[in-house]
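Field reference: "sequence" (input) and "structure" (output). Example, Gylcosyl hydrolase 115 C-terminal domain-containing protein:
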Amino acid sequence: MNQSGASTAFSVQAPSAGEYRLLLHYTSTANPENTSIDLNGTRDWPLPAHLGLRVGGADRGAVYFPRTAPHDGAFPDGRVSIPVTLEAGTNTVSFVHREGSGQVELDRAELSATPRI
């Protein structure tokens, strides 16, 4: 995704309500020049590409995707694991590209229960 407003959604099945981990496989060739923080007019530090996260239609902040190596046919496997709170049954987890957030290509998502300590 590299256009503001672009989005993708995954339907995930949760056996019961609670905390889960969502492992996202991705590639990001975001140019740090386009995704950085300016401090007093000076480009201060680069941000990784990021997408807005929604669970069940509710905004849940942003997910950051560090840059992966450029690919030439093979999909580099960047991985980010994020916590999500789900209801029992089918849940929709979506990602939304925001202006200036860089390019992210999501390959797949894997859901696992959060281990209890």
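The chain is about 0% helix and 60% strand.
The mean pLDDT is 77.
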